[in-house]
């Protein structure tokens, strides 16, 4: 069974930094794009950053220049370094990956369990 397990997050002061990590495990055939979404309190889930298997990254306008996404294909892992955090970055952050298990031909979206990030003084 394929799963994504997140770690990191927590509480930071405005201007501070946090790091989120996520690793895929199970019987995996292939992994495509990986990334992070977030859901602020009372709002819908929104895209934060994506990274292709070749390393090309894309960011939402709200985090461009402050967040850095990276991946380790050998470890089936993706990370998000968050700098210059602001109160509006407070949200539950979800790891995302397009994964094809060994039992299937096509990739499907998988989600991590969610990690709370709170930015407050």
Number of helices: 0
Strand content: over 45%
Using the alpha-carbon principal axes, give the shape: elongated
- Overall strand count: 11
How would you describe this protein?
The protein is mainly β and 121 residues long. The mean pLDDT is 97. Helix content is 0%, strand content 58%. The N and C termini lie far apart (40 Å). β9 (91-101) and β10 (108-111) form a beta hairpin.
Question: What is the strand and helix layout of this fold?
Answer:
Blueprint (H helix, E strand, L loop, with lengths): L2 E6 L1 E3 L5 E8 L2 E12 L6 E6 L5 E3 L7 E6 L4 E6 L8 E11 L6 E4 L3 E5 L2
Structure summary:
This protein is mostly beta strands and 121 residues long.
Relevant terms:
121 residues; mainly beta; 7-stranded mixed β-sheet; 4-stranded antiparallel β-sheet; 58% strand
């Amino acid at each position: 069974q394929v799963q994504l397990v997140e770690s990191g997050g927590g509480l930071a002061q405005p201007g501070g930094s946090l790091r989120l990590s996520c690793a895929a495990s199970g019987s995996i055939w292939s992994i495509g794009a990986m990334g992070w979404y977030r859901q602020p309190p009372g709002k819908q889930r929104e895209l934060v950053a994506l990274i292709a298997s070749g390393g090309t990254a894309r960011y939402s306008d709200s985090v461009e220049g402050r967040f850095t996404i990276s991946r380790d294909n050998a470890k089936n892992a993706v990370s998000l370094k968050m700098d210059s955090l602001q109160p509006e970055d407070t949200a539950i952050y979800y790891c995302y990956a397009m994964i094809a298990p060994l039992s299937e031909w096509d990739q499907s979206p998988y989600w991590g369990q969610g990690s709370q990030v709170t930015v407050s003084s």
